[in-house]
Structures are given as structure tokens and as C-alpha cells.
Design a protein that fits this description.
Helices cover 21% and strands 34% of the residues. It is α+β, with helices and mostly antiparallel strands and 310 residues long. The longest helix is centred in the first third of the chain and has 12 residues, at 26-37.
Length: 310
């Protein structure tokens, strides 16, 4: 049976910063919003565990090309840890596998411990993670009761701030690099204090340069879509907002045409190296390029064409 015209998906472009509720996987949240937008193409960046809440950037259409850049972005979390009990998953969904006394410590004591994790270090990923070992996901092995050796991975903690320390409850905010497992961080912090712990609540506040006030609750998304997809589509952020941390390069019409055709062009006097946002006439976003030492820029991801057409 042929689908009706109204059931066909549309070429929707843009980014929505969903405040993911607990109980949904990242993909379930993505598919729900994709249906509300009636979008043809969609992807998300930086998966959140089902129990976790907070910022989940959802990318649609041409904006899916920024997914790879957001995966590398720094992130900020508000973390609530329950001291004195460890679980097999490292969070509140797991079974308790160990308990320990919680030492009597002042806020200054806890702050000293937290600041000891500031900077670069090596972290052993948890067994309950999506990393692979010999072709199998670690969480698949963990569910069978298996534990395998994991290689430590480099991480970076840019800031860590104590928010609350009361009895068995420890709350802190951490800004960290990609690949940081907060559940493992909580366990390491507890170990440094001479006890055990698990992550009771995890809320992601920021991704890259996106702020808390730009997030939208799922209920608000559903309410906006109740009158059709158009109002919701108009609220989407442009793709280049995900790249605000990159330098900006503006090209003239001739250079813009060559850039979009895959050619290396002169970037002008930028004084920077590495990745940059590239714009054409009337500040139309063209894509991401990489500036070399000789002041030329090579296309790495083309998002559109001069004149604004993808």
C-alpha cells in the first residue's frame, strides 16, 4: 500500500538541543523528535544513558554533518553521587555489590579530593560501556558476569566544583573532555576518600558552546508540534551554531565556488591554523575547512553552496 503524500518525510535542517528525560535511550528520544518534525534525516551526538538526563544535541538534514565535531566537544555535567554503596553498573540502575563506611569529612576535605582530579589523567572505562573487546560490547560481557581487562584511556578534567556534601550525598559539577566516564570518575573519587560510591543522578548541562538556556524539554517539543511541524522547525538552531568555537573565514564569490567544489583556496589573513567555519556572500554558511601553514584552507565538510542551497 502506497504511503500518502502527508506521510512522506521532509528535508529538515537544523539542530535541536533536547533536555532528554530519564527512561529513554538517546536513539528513542531522537526517533520521537524526528517523527514530530517529519524529518527525513537525523542523528544525535554524545549518547546519554537511559537513566541520565540533560543536553542531547539532535541534528537534522545538513546539520547531521556536525555530529562528528560535537562528539569531540567538551561537556559539563551535574553529578549526584551516593556514597557508601557501589553497584555493578556504577549507577542507580545496578545491583549493590559493596558497601563501606562514609568518612566524616568537611566540604574543604571533599574539595581537596575533587581538585586532585583536575587536569589530564588516565581512566579505566567501566565494564558497563559500549566499548568493544574482541568484537563484543563490554556491557554484553558484563551482563554475563564476565570482567575483562580494559586499557586506560586519556581524559581531561577542565574544572570540577563541589556543590554539596551532606552525609552520603555528594554533588559536584564537572567539565570534561570527550571519552570521560562520569560513573568511573565517581568511583575513583570515592576510592580517594576511602569509601565506595555510585552515580545516583547524572544531568548533562552543556555540550561545546551550547548553554543550558538553549535546551528544550520533550513536553515542550511535543506541544509545539501539536499544531504541525512548522513551528517546531522554525525553532531549530542553524548547523553552524554547533561550531561556534571554531575560527571564522569569509570567502569572496569566486573562492566560495571553488571551496564548495572541493578545491583548496586562500583563507586570507586569519592568523589561525586548524579547523574553521567558512562563509560566503551574505554570511551564508558553506562548511568546515582546515587552514594550513601557508594561509590556504581546504574543505573538510561542505554544508551548502553559494546562494544558500545545499
Amino acid at each position: 500500500m502506497a504511503r500518502s503524500r502527508n506521510s512522506r518525510s521532509d528535508p529538515v535542517d537544523g539542530v535541536l538541543l533536547l533536555n532528554k528525560p530519564a527512561g529513554l535511550t538517546s536513539n528513542q528520544a531522537l526517533q520521537r523528535v524526528k517523527r514530530l518534525l517529519n524529518a527525513r534525516k537525523a542523528g544525535h551526538t554524545g549518547s546519554l544513558d537511559p537513566a541520565a538526563t540533560g543536553m542531547l544535541p539532535l541534528c537534522f538534514g545538513e546539520a547531521t554533518k556536525v555530529c562528528a565535531f560535537l562528539l569531540d566537544a567538551d561537556k559539563t555535567y551535574r553529578v549526584t553521587a551516593k556514597l557508601g554503596s557501589a553497584t555493578d553498573t556504577g549507577d542507580a540502575t545496578g545491583a549493590v555489590i559493596g558497601t563501606a563506611e562514609v568518612p566524616a569529612m568537611t566540604a574543604d576535605d571533599w574539595d581537596t579530593i575533587l581538585q586532585g582530579f583536575h587536569g589530564e589523567s588516565l581512566q579505566i572505562p567501566p565494564m558497563y560501556s559500549a566499548l568493544k573487546k574482541d568484537g563484543k560490547r563490554l556491557y554484553e560481557l558484563a551482563r554475563k558476569g564476565e570482567t575483562v581487562e580494559r586499557e586506560p584511556r586519556p581524559i581531561r578534567i577542565d574544572s570540577i566544583e563541589l556543590l554539596e556534601a551532606a552525609g552520603a550525598r555528594l554533588v559536584f559539577r564537572v567539565r570534561c573532555s570527550k571519552g570521560t566516564y562520569v560513573r568511573s570518575l565517581v568511583e575513583d573519587i570515592a576510592r580517594a576518600a576511602g569509601t565506595v560510591a555510585h552515580t545516583a543522578r547524572l544531568h548533562r548541562e552543556t555540550v561545546a558552546d551550547f548553554g543550558i538556556d538553549e535546551m528544550v524539554d520533550l513536553k515542550a517539543v511535543e506541544a509545539s508540534a501539536a499544531e504541525g511541524p512548522s513551528p517546531l522547525r522554525e525553532s531549530l538552531l542553524p548547523a553552524d551554531r554547533a561550531l561556534a568555537g571554531l575560527a571564522e573565514v569569509c570567502l569572496d564569490e569566486a573562492a566560495a565556488l571553488r571551496f564548495c567544489g572541493g578545491q583548496v583556496v586562500a583563507a586570507g589573513e586569519t592568523g589561525v591554523h586548524g579547523l574553521a567555519r567558512v562563509y560566503g556572500a551574505e554570511h551564508v554558511f558553506l562548511g568546515v575547512g582546515e587552514i594550513s601553514g601557508d594561509g590556504r584552507i581546504a574543505p573538510r565538510r561542505v554544508f551548502g553552496r553559494p546562494g544558500g542551497n545545499p
